[in-house]
Each structure stands twice: as C-alpha cells, then as structure tokens.
Amino acid sequence: MPPRIGERIAAILLALALPALAAAADTVFLAELDRDEVALGETATLQITLQGPSEPTALELPGEGMKDLEVVNRGQSNQTSVSVINGKLQTTQTRIFQIVLHPTRVGTLTVPSATCLVEGKRYSTRPLQLRVTKDPSGGGTQGRAQAPPGVPQLPGTPRTIDPFQNRQRPATRLRNPERALSVKLELDKKRVWLGEQVTATISIYCPSEVALQNITGSRLPSYDGFWSENLKDQISFQNKVIDNVPYRVYLIRQVALFPTRAGKLTVSPVEFDLITQVPSDDPFDFFPASQKVVRRSEPVSVEVRPLPPGAPPGFQSVNVGDWKLAGSVSEQQVPAGQPVTFRLEASGHGGLRSLTLPKLPAQPGLKLFDPTVKDQVSMDGDRFGGSKVVETVLVPERTGELVLPPLEWSYFDPASGTFQTARTSEVRLTVTPGAAGGAPSVAAGVNTLTAGLRPLHAEGELSKGGSPPWSGPLFALLLLGPVVLYAGMVAGDRLRDRLRSGDGERRVRRAGRKARRRLAAARKLASGGDAAAFHAEVARALIGYAADKLGRSAQGLTRDELARELTQAGAHPPAVAALSSALDACDAGRFGMGAATRGDVLRAAERAMEMLEEAEWRRPREVA
Predict the structure, then answer these.
(1) How far apart (Å, rounded) are the C-alpha atoms in residues 330 and 343?
(2) How many domains does the chain contain in total?
(3) Which of 52, 106, 132, 581 stands the most exposed, by the fewest C-beta atoms within 10 Å?
(4) Do the Cβ atoms of 46 and 33 come closer than 8 Å?
(5) Which domain range does residue 267 map to?
(6) Could you give the angle at the alpha carbon of 151 between the alpha carbons of 147 and 154, nearest 5°?
(7) pLDDT at 214
(8) 270-296: b or e for each residue (b if 16 or more CB lie within 10 Å)?
(9) Are both 131 and 236 inside the same structural domain?
C-alpha cells in the first residue's frame, strides 16, 4: 500500500474516533454587526458565530419579516479544529453565518436575537442596535431606488450599481489569503500646522481565512520630527469588508503626533513578526501548520505648514491647540503673613506637555515664590489634551484689598488657522490683620523677637575629658570587623559553590511545587477582570516548570524547540502535546482570540503538569 494512502486511511480512522475521545467544552454563541451606523441605502452585515463540540438540534436566525430591515443576502462557512486538552483529543466546530441587512427607514433599528438548542440547553444572542442616518443621495425611497443594495462599502466609498442584479455578490475567496495579510500605518491628516495633532494608527489587516495566532516581535517607527503621545495601546479588532473580501482589522496602537518642525515629515515604516495559520485545502489535513511571516508597512508623509505671520506679542510657537485659561486663588480672605495659592490653569486639546503659560507679575504688597507646574492628561476620543496647572504661592505683606490683574495668553488655533488670546478674570484678595483679634501693627525698626530671647550664660564649669577612644575595647572590635566580614564573605562563596553543585537536582525536584504555587496565584486572578494577567501567570507557571526540568531558560524557545528539548530530557510525547495545548490556550486567551474559559485553562495546565511528572527526567547536565 503506498505510504500516502496509508496516511489518509489513518487520518480517516482518527476522524471517526474523535467524537469518542472528545472532552466536554463550552458552547459559544454570539452576534455582531460590522458597523453600528449606516446611511439609508447602505447595508450592514450581521455575523453570527456558533462554536462548540456538538451539532445544534435547533437553530433560529433573524430572517424575513424583520421590521424595517430587509435581508438581501446570506452566507455560511464551517470550520473544524482539533486540540488536545487533558490528554484527550477534542474537536471544535465553528459555524459563521453572515446576513446582509438593508434598512428601510431612518432611526435606531433593532436586530432581533438568534437562538439555538445544543445538548438540551438553549442559547440566545443579545439584540443589536443599528443607527440609520439620512441617505447621502437625498433620502427617501427615491434615493434607494437609484442605488439598490450591493457589495458592502466602507464609509465614503462610492457604490457600484448593477441594474440587472439586486442582490449582494458572494464574498471573494482569495487564492493565496496569506499574501493579503498586511500591516498599515495610516495618518488621519496629510497637511497640518506646526504643532497641530496628527493621529497615527497602526493596524493589521488579516483576511478572515487566515488565523492570526500571535505577534512575536515588532519594530515601531521612531517618529523623527514629532513629539509623540500614546492614545491606545490595547489590541482590539473589528470586521470589515474591503473589495468584497472580509477582513478582521486589528488595531494595534494609536499615537498622537505633534510636529516640531515645518516641511515634509515622513513617519518610518512599522514591522511585525506574526504567527499565522491557514486552513489546508486537503480534507485529510486535520492539523494545519503554523507559520511565521514578517509584514512591513509603507512609510507615510505629512506636510507641516509653518505658523502664519502676525503673531501677538509674547506668543510662544509651542502654544498650539484649542485652549481655555482660568485663574483663581485658594482663599478669598487671608490674614497678613499667611500664604495663599494662585492657580493658573489652561485646559483643552493639543500639545499639553509643551505649553508655556504666563507668570504672575510682581505685585505691591505681595511676596511671590517660584511657581510649580503639573500636567493632568485626559483623552477625548482620539484627541490628546488635558490641563496644565501653574500654582504660585503668595504671601501678603500688608492688610487691605489686593487686586491681581487679568493675565493674557496667546495661542494658535489650528482649526480656524488664527491666533487667539485667552484672558483670566480679575482676582481680588482681602487681607486681614495677622494677629487674632486685630493686634496693632508693629512700628518700623522694632525687633519683635526680643521678648522670646533668653540671656547668655557667662559662667560654667569645665569637666575633665575622658580617655582617648583608641584605648578602649570598642576600637579594637572596630579594627577586627573588616577582617571578620571578609572571612565571612569567603566562607559564604564556598558554601554557595557547594550548594550550586547540587542545584540542578534540587531544581528538578522542586519544579512541580514551584509551578503549583504559581497556578494557585493564577487561580486567585481567575475571579478578577484582568484576563491578560491570569493567562500570563498560567503561561509563566508552565514555562518556569519546563525551564526547571531542563536546567536552562525556556524563554525565547519556539513550541517545536521546547517540545524537542523536553523530549530529549525524558518527557513522553502525549505530555509534550498537552503542554503545547495548554500554552496555546493561554496565548489565545491573552490576545482575545480563544473561547476557552479560565477554568478550562487551569485544568489544561494542571493536566499537562501531571503528565510531565510521569516522565523519567534526566539530570540537567546529562541533557544533550
């Protein structure tokens, strides 16, 4: 029998045996819209995902008869994946239903829930809201008749009208979907003023046929010529249809850039090392291989215009943005000689950290101290800003009413392209007499400290000094201290060397106890809301366990390299497979691409350690 046919027969037998070996898994049933807002005449795609080990006995999806929503197209895709959990093979079937909806009126429309019945348990998705605005072509049924629903378009993209077809084209299937995987660096503006914010967005465009498993390395731009502030660092994604091809777009980072010089500035490319998986066309290939790819974006440029002439006197070129200015004092009434704080605050959007605020000028009857400056950053969507506060301590030196005149501060508003001047209000400060009850003022030249001084003592007895310090026993102990300390250090080094000689065996023996302590810490995190911290702690426990057994660091090893090292050290293949499956579950949970619960991840990790404990481990120095 040819070897290829034998392999396929073995694969068929394995597929027939999978249902008997599969372990219980959770069912995931969710629905999402590709966008929350459309114009009348456009379409929105409803995607419903059903994932689990069992076939549904009943399934009801939103269809004909929905109020204010027409179904113009339907699509369905199925995928089966196999994994090893607790030493057993488990199959997971994923069904994705796509329903293209066409709204018939303006307003907030409700997409009803979908329901299914799996193993006697009923699941329902949540209702979704779709906001429909006025048709850009003029609204009403006339505009819709001129542009019947067709291929889903990105906002602002012209719609292609086919008079012979009133249904959406099916999604295009790519011949080589991994080639369509790309990294993009995009700027929201192509022409800005000096100091005006331009937002850079770094995204990964991944075709739906490709599974993005991990990001193993990145080379981010240097942003030469810009002052940069991070807006978003948390990875999120959304589904988009581009040129009739469905994509999952991952937002990796969003950065606010403030140009520091005029002219044409270029943002260097960004590069990512990605781990992907593409399903095979071979029906007998149940375990598609993962591959590492490198994707690099194109450089992008922006034209930075210098600020126009005609700046007000005292204007600083770093004061660019949309700002408001306010001044106040901590107290309206204060005794003479007591401090009071004058607070000057600029709030709004722009290059907050580089703002330069005016100083309070010297005032008669007031002593001024050096001001302190602090920034309070806040985000308004993708706009960077907040408030800069300058606080100056004032000490009034006379009684009566003191007036702090208004302060003027000029800035450039990039939205209007003009210089603006902000002013504070006049601040009045009432200074009362310093002593309680209104004590009379002190005449000039009178020393007010005389009553608190005591006379000097002119007479006193001198006592005879004791023996010199070097004649006592304490001095001898101080001399011997360094010698004793050096001898202790030498003895400690020798003891540490002796203990280190047997450290490898102890590390192997204590590996399980150390890993279980980390899993106990992860179990405490399981009930919290930080999923990334929980999955990272479980992964550290497993990687640390493997490193202790190998007698070397396991960081930086690929899954294949780690499996090879563990096998050579004495672990059997099922245990290595269980460890790899548990680490995959941790990575999937950490990057938001897995459906396993935290309890499943903990049980998978504990099962992997139990199987690894069955191995006859060699001493670390014996491992090749």
Answers:
(1) 8
(2) 4
(3) 106
(4) yes
(5) 177-305
(6) 95
(7) 87
(8) bebebbbbbeeeeeeebeeebeeeebe
(9) no
| Residue with tokens 């943005």, as numbered in its chain | 321
Asked if 407 and 353 sit in the same domain, the reply is yes
Determine the Cα–Cα distance for residues 498 and 546; give it in Å rounded to an integer.
Answer: 25
Cα dihedral value 163, 165, 166, 169, nearest 10: -130
Q: Walk across the sheet containing 37-39 and list its strands.
A: 37-39, 128-133, 107-111
Instruction: Report which of 186, 191, 415, 188 is spatially closest to residue 306, judged by C-alpha positions.
Output: 191
Residue with tokens 């303006």: 106
Three-class SS of residue 508? Answer: helix
For residue 410, the model assigns a pLDDT of 95
Q: Are residues 124 and 72 in the same domain?
A: yes
Whether residue 91 is found in the same domain as residue 142: yes
Query: Strand order of the sheet with strand 427-432?
Result: 333-335, 427-432, 400-404
Quick one: 288 and 328 in the same domain?
Answer: no
Say which CATH number the domain at 614 has.
1.20.120
Same-domain status, 361 and 403: yes
130/8 same-domain check: yes
Is residue 465 included in any domain, yes or no? no
What are the residues facing 184 on neighbouring strands? 203
Q: What span, in angstroms and rounded, lies between the C-alpha atoms of 505 and 392? A: 64
Q: How far is CA 141 from CA 104, 145, 318, in A?
A: 8, 6, 52
Confirm whether 329 is domain-assigned: yes
In a domain, 460, yes or no: no
Q: Which amino acid is at 104?
A: T
Domain boundary, last residue among 280, 305, 330: 305
Q: In 218-257, which positions are buried (b, 16+ CB within 10 angstroms) versus exposed (e)?
A: eeebebebbbebebbeebebebbbeeebbbbebebbbbbb
State which of 390, 411, 432 marks the end of a domain.
Answer: 432
Q: Is the pLDDT of residue 285 over 90?
A: no
**CATH assignment at residue 221:** 2.60.40
Whether 223 contacts 267, CB under 8 Å = yes
pLDDT band at residue 160 under the 50/70/90 scheme: very low
pLDDT tens, residue by residue, 108-134: 989 999 999 988 888 989 889 899 998
353-406 per-position pLDDT tens digit: 999 999 888 888 888 888 999 999 988 888 999 999 999 998 998 898 888 889
Q: 256: Cβ–Cβ under 8 A, 6 or more apart, which residues?
A: 197, 198, 199, 200, 228, 229, 230, 231, 382, 383, 384
Residue 237: inside a domain: yes
The DSSP 8-state label assigned to residue 528 in this structure reads S
- Strands (E) across 354-504 are located at 366-368, 372-380, 383-396, 400-404, 408-413, 418-423, 427-432
Strand-by-strand arrangement of the 271-277 sheet:
211-219, 271-277, 290-296
| Cα-Cα end-to-end distance for the chain | 38
* 362: CATH: 2.60.40.740
Are residue 70 and residue 194 in the same domain, yes or no?
no
Whether 256 and 282 have beta carbons less than 8 Å apart is answered as no
Tens digit of pLDDT for each residue in 407-429?
999 999 999 999 999 999 989 88
Could you give the dihedral angle defined by the CA atoms of residues 510, 513, 516 and 520, in that order, rounded to the nearest 10 degrees?
-130
